[in-house]
Specification:
The protein is mostly helical and about 25 residues long. It is built from one helix and no strands. The longest helix is centred in the middle third of the chain and has 17 residues.
């Protein structure tokens, strides 16, 4: 399993990516 910190960083980066793309892939 990923460490919570690493997972948090990856999720935060992914969230930023989604925001940049205009939330096209959200829901």
């Amino acid at each position: 399993m990923l460490s919570p910190l690493l997972a948090n960083i990856l999720l935060d980066d992914l969230d930023t990516e989604l925001q940049t793309r205009g939330h096209r892939f959200v829901r």
